[in-house]
Amino acid sequence: MEKRNSVFESLKAKVEILVREHKKLHDKVLLQEKKQQELMQLIENQKNTIKNLEESNKIAKLAQAISQESENTSDVKSKINELVREIDKCMALLNN
Q: What is the pLDDT along the chain (96 residues), one digit of tens a residue?
């Protein structure tokens, strides 16, 4: 009988150890799941930031292209005006 009690106590102790280990592992899994959710949220935030930055970059490039076109347009207008003045001078010389 004593042998049975000793086996029973041994099994009881082992089960208690297993229950404590199970609880520790369960808590660890919950913590890891929480960390995973936080990381997933961080990834989403970073994706949104990247998307916004890409959009801003597109706008900046477009604005720069428009600015360059404006500069080119004003350069072209200046050259055309200069050529028109030269033509007017030539026509005035021909008329004299």
A: 788 888 889 999 999 999 999 999 999 999 999 999 999 999 999 999 999 999 988 888 877 877 776 666 777 777 788 888 888 888 888 886
Q: Is 18 left (phi over 0), alpha (psi -120 to 50) or beta?
A: alpha
CA dihedral 50, 52, 55, 60 (to 10 degrees): -100
Amino acid at 71: E
DSSP reduced 3-state for 96: coil
Query: Per residue, what are the HEC states of 20-39?
Result: HHHHHHHHHHHHHHHHHHHH
